[in-house]
Amino acid sequence: MASDSIFVLPGDPIDPSAVPSHPTKALRLGPGLRHVPPRQILPTLAGQLLVDKHKNAMRVETSRGRYIPRAGELVIGTIYKSVADAYQVLISPYTAPVSLNHLSFEQATRKTRPVLLPGALVYARVSVAHKHMDAEVECVSATTGKSDGLGPLTGGMLFDISLGMARRLMVPKPAQHAKLVVLDEFAASGLQFDTATGRNGKFWVGSDSTATVIAVGRAVQDTDGKSLSIDAQRKLVRLLIKNTG
C-alpha cells in the first residue's frame, strides 16, 4: 500500500487530490475514515493516511493502539491452548484469541503436525477476518501448500514495537521508503541473525548469539520509541556492535 506520508488528525479535511480514483473500482474506505455525504471524507483516528491506488482504497494507520486483524496480513502469535482441532493463538492484548487449525502447516497430518505448547510462538497469515467472527490464521499457503516462511518460531526473543514500526519494517526497501536502516547496518557488519515482523506490533529476532539478538531487538525498539533519524540509527548500531564485541 503506497502512501505519501500524510499525517492526519480526527476531523481534518482530506485534500481531494489525495483521494484515489479508479475507472471501474469503487472507493474503499478502511479503518480510521468515514464518508460524510455528499463527497467529504474525514479521519476518525490520528495517524498516517495510506492510499492504495491499485485497489482504490485508503485508510488511517495508527502507530499505537490495538491491532485489528485484516486478511492477508502477517502476524506473530503466542499459543494460548489447544482445543479440539485447533490452537487458540494470542496476537494482541485484551482481545479474543484467533484460531489456528492443527493441520494448517506445510505437509501436516494428524501424525506429523507440530505439537505446540502454550507460550510457543508462530509466524502466521490472517486467513479470515470478519467483524462479527473470530479471526483465523494459517501457517501454510492455501494455494501452494507451502509454508512460505511461516510456522513455529523457535529460540530467539520477541520484542514489542508500535504498529507503525511494524509497517515500516515490512515495506520493500525500508531504507528508501521508510527511513529505516538498522537491520541493513547490522547485516553489513557481518552479524548473523534472522528476523520476523508481525503487523500486530511484534518483532522476533533469532541468532546463535544472545548478545546479537538483544542488540538487534533493542536497536529496533529504540529507533521506534525515539523516532531516530538515519544517522542516529547508524550511530546506535555502531555503539551496540562495539558493546557486543
Protein described:
InterPro entries: Exosome_RNA_bind1/RRP40/RRP4 (IPR026699), KH_dom_type_1 (IPR004088), KH_dom_type_1_sf (IPR036612), NA-bd_OB-fold (IPR012340), Rrp40_N_euk (IPR041054). Residues 156-209 form the K Homology domain. GO terms for molecular function: RNA binding. The chain has 245 residues and is α+β, with helices and mostly antiparallel strands. It has three domains: 7-61, OB fold (Dihydrolipoamide Acetyltransferase, E2P) (Beta Barrel); 73-154, OB fold (Dihydrolipoamide Acetyltransferase, E2P); 158-244, Ribosomal Protein S8, Chain: A, domain 1 (2-Layer Sandwich), CATH 3.30.1370.10. 21% of the residues lie in helices and 31% in strands. It is built from five helices and 15 strands. It has helices at residues 163-170, 174-177, 182-188, 210-226, 230-244, and strands spanning 6-8, 28-29, 33-36, 40-43, 47-52, 57-61, 74-83, 86-90, 98-105, 121-128, 136-139, 151-153, 157-160, 194-198, 202-206. A five-stranded mixed beta barrel has the order 7-8-9-11-10. The model has no long low-confidence stretch (mean pLDDT 89).
